[in-house]
Fold these 4 entries.
Entry 1:
Amino acid sequence: MDMAAGGEGAPLVPLSEYILYRSENKAIALQNIGGIGNVTIIPKGAKLDQVFAFDTGPGNMMINDAMERLYQKSYDDRGEVAARGKLIDELVNELKAHPYLQIVPPKSTGREEFGSDYTGTILKKYQAYPPEDIIATLTWFTAYSIAFSYQNYVLPEHQLSEVILAGGGVHNLTLKDYIQQMMPNISVVTQEEKGYSSDSKEALAFAILGNETLHHQTSNVPSATGAKENVILGNIVYPN
């Protein structure tokens, strides 16, 4: 329905984040790191139509794909492989030049840009390098895409004091360290430090969205998706 109204159809979680985290005293960034990274910005004392959100780039997608191919593991546990590696300068420069980073929000992305085809091309091109260096550089790129997005599309208009991380990426301690190093003047914390669960953030969001749909309430946020109007999302489908 959001796409029918001219929106990107994503991100879908900003309404729940507005309900749960809005503050009269400070602007907050809620950074989810799932397969794709996405951020919701809630300005200080914001009304709902002042909330905006967009996909920052890859989250765990490229890291996990590379771990599967190089180590036959589904993810980099606590970022331990990345912590042993060094950045590959040539790959750093190639990743920094990815055209998605230059697109001005609202925007969204997915496997079509950062999926297995793209990761596979990188692994083939840099196969002469130690695998831990590739994992370290891909982990760095996720952090860089987040910091770049904030520096270019958030901080010029909003003074952030806090970034709250969620999603599987919060368990990657090397990734979290990279993010904090790239934004030294902003406090980077996890959902757990706020009394919530990083792994349950989207489940909680969709419980809220489902409740809105059940009660015939709109739940997209046009300032986040680019839609022309507020719409009721999803359908209630009853069994026969």
Note: The mean pLDDT is 95.
Entry 2:
Amino acid sequence: MSKRVRSREVCADCSAPEPRWASVNRGVLICDECCSIHRGLGRHSSQVRHLTHSSWPPSQLQMVQTLYGNGANSIWEHSLLDPSSSASGKRKANPQDRVHPNKTEFIKAKYQMLAYVHRMPCRDDDSVTAKDLSKQLHSSVRTGNLETCLRLLSLGGQANFFHPEKGNTPLHIAAKAGQILQAELLAVYGADPGALDSSGKTPIDYASERKTAVGKTMFATGA
């Protein structure tokens, strides 16, 4: 592990001190008890790794810690940050809560039902909304704003979206721009490093051309 967890860090789900696990695709750090619940959700909901005992692909741990440090948990708990949420009876779990049912019900609502995520205005055609989200993702990965991209992915943006006008995928853009952590995030959400753009090149081709760490990252993780 490139960095040791600092004592001020707390579990994203119940605020227990010194979390020892990470949910890679959610960008949060979690405690032992909450990790046991995450495992029960399945890898499609939460991909967990131990911060010190797991083998981490290059830059992936940095990606998770950057998301956590920049407040990615507020994506999953957006509505709970509203002062009126306490008046309505909504609250997050705390360390003293029982695993079953309290913590389990909260974590399922948070990550499976996305009960507290701020949703974009609905449209009649859901496929149009997904396309719009994916186009926003396509534009956002050229920047270093991981939280924006995580939010777009959480709402339905597609990591393998092929932009019809641009002729490429978000991973092509991240590779061209040398955005290592964006490439890691897209990889966690299933981006294909072998996808061809309109020029017949893959994201790995562009990463290799840059001769930067992003190339090694995608080769090592399979992006």
Note: The CA atoms of residues 50 and 212 lie 27 Å apart.
Entry 3:
Amino acid sequence: MWMDTKPEAEEASRSRASLSRRVLNSLLLCTGDMEHLDKYMQDKLFVLQLAVWGLRGVARVILANNPLSGALVLAALYWASPWQGLLGTLGVLASTLTAIIIGQDSAEVSAGLHGFNGMLVSLLMGVFSSAGDWYWWLLLPVCLGSATCVFLFSGLSSVLDRWDLPVAVFPFNIIIVLYLLCTGPDNPYFPHHPATPAGALEPNSTELIAVEVMHGILLGVGQIFACGALGPSLLILGAVLLYSPLLAIHALLGSAVGTLAGLSMAVRHGSLYSGLSGFNGALGCMAVGGLFFTFSWRTHLFAIASAFLSAYADIALSNLLGTVGLPACSWAATLTATLMLLLTGSLSAYRIPIGQVMAPERNMHSRSQWEAGNTVERESTDV
């Protein structure tokens, strides 16, 4: 009897191992850039392709290129505010469709590169609007502003490509500042709340609450999408984790660094608690910590330095632009990441060409393969 049950036990063990391996492989297909999905969608309906392109555009805001991550982010926005979710959806669709109509590069469109700026513009218009939710007239500037991002993206890319620099969110930052300058707080059709400088004095200042500061670190990831709710922010962090665990670690680390920088400059407690002090640091840390540079201990320290620089630059710009009621948006992280990409020296050897940027884990794997190939080539040459 023992001899009969032993092969059956071994077969059951192999079957369980095979099932676990299939489940793991299926989960791995949902991570990273999901390049296999693009091949699968080539002969599908245009509406389905547009949905995937739009979701990639949503994920591009958090420096990811994964439609499932985009779906999680969109779910988080609808969870936090259905109105904001609607505006974000409309913004990414308006900019993506504009890019298709005017004949932008199909590879850029399918990768979501023409969607994320439009989404950010629409979200910030909704956040700063003082007309309240479900103010339908706001859909007009949302569509126009999102569409205009495509023209700015196309124009800036022809200039920045000479230095192999990404356009990033320059169009969003430009459009939202122009919109707020055009309308003003007392506009009869599109009024908005004036921004408050980060260093503004609080009349009824109280002691700092440590738990709220810790919450602010998590909210710093959500504030990349102008989302200040804890649950949706955790879901957005999960979307980053799905794309790349390394990127998620740098997002939290950068937000913590930004919060620490805010503490050192005694910014308003509201900025610390709401995550506004952390999101530029998160973006700066993510951009350098494995996305545009291959991850190593040097680039990790470089990413922390980028987070500090982004956070302090954000405080300075918030105090400057806040005097005229304008937000600093993500100017600090965008300018800092661009500056870091222009650096020369030993760190430039870790930089990844913009056209070859993938998930950080894939970047590390590609670099290790390249170094292994060079080692074999040198050994064969020496022989």
Note: The chain is about 70% helix and 0% strand.
Entry 4:
Amino acid sequence: MFKKGIARRWLFNSLGVMILLFTACIAALSFVVQSYAYNGIQMTLIGRSDELPTVLSGSMKTVSEFNAAARSYTENFPDKDLMEVMAVSRSGSILSTSSGFAPDQNQSKPDFESALHSENGYGYWIGKLASGEKVMAVSRVARGANGAVLGAVRYIVSMERADRQITYVVLVLIGIGVLILVLVTLSGIYFVRSIITPIRELNATAEKIAKGDFDVRVKKEKDDELGALCDSINDMAAELGTAEKMKNDFISSVSHELRTPLTAIKGWAETLQTGGIGRETYDKGMNVIVREAERLSGMVEELLDFSRMQSGRMRLILKRIDLLAELDEAVYMFTDRARTEHKNLIYDEEDTMLSPILGDVNRLRQVFINVIDNALKYTNPGGTVRVSAYEDDGFIRVIIKDSGCGIPAEHLPNVKKKFYKANQNVRGNGIGLAVANEIMELHSGSLDIDSEEGMGTTVIITIPTMKKLEMNPELSNTTQIPTATAQVQVVERKQD
């Protein structure tokens, strides 16, 4: 786990920083403990030295008097078990000591030298004796009435016990720190594992999805950010699976749609090629070939439109047009078909003129044709398709309502998606509504569908008038805002 990746970075970054902080804290605490202990001992020694003026009062006129009083003080010192007291002559020789042993006259006395040159008569020193023992010493100089140095009293304490206690405290602090560090490390490892394990599972799942296994799912362990990521991966897999199925259905549908006219064209071409047929049969065959060729051309054009839509290259050539005129022509195109299929195609013509719009004539006609074609396809013989248009608050709305089979509620949100077909039993490739919706969005309009299963479907096509766009430029979905003064404009969708 720690060879690479997140765990390694955590180990060398977070844990490394914690170790440095831990070391710094231990060093700082050790210094504080040692300073506190040493200062306490020093203040104790200075406090004892402050009693000299009282103890030696009246005996500090001459050197001999001081020497006698100092010997008596050292020999009768009550705290001999806590510290050693020495009487030092003004020349630096040791006169007597509270230990009862012969003093070492060669012993270093930096504190005595410091006290001789100090204004307050104190001297302080920490060091090692000739025996190697670490001690703290405080010297207090005694002066006569004329200010002359009579001698000094030196207080010495062994620091070995204090150092042992300080070491013990430091070791306890280190132990506590190490324990905390171990707990933090174990907690960190558990936390890192709780992240790395799901990430590895997500990675393995993503690899399977990349290889085309859209049925694989990630097991969600916890309801947190990783859980949300698991949900997103699972949703993505489901969406990709659905898209893959729709794509396969689309390919199958397109293949079938292309094969049908091609079969008719090929069959009649072979028939005509044999010769020896009557004029009526010849004309019938040529009509079939032309009609099916036009049908093929329409399907290819629809596929090209879809390709342009996918790559963001669908463009419009906008100009001032009368929307009703294009709607009239589209309805007229389906009149014969509706009559042949025994369906009622009713067009409620508007009595008043509608405001002009900026639109692409061919594209808007394509939208009307796609929607009316769908309405007729899904309407049973004897059913009705009703087309109407009106203007409301600066928008023109075209309503195409059929009495067909309707769209189930679970399919309704997806019918404008690419490749999606709610009814696989009806011809079509599933991209007509997607292209129509894209065209309407390029026109700064919308294509809305309201349907109830078994009751029919209503499609509402909404597009703003020229005046509405001029007054509200923010409504435009194109890179160029249409204006009434422009004769022709070429626009495309804004890129996000």
Note: The chain has three domains: 50-158, 225-304, 313-492.
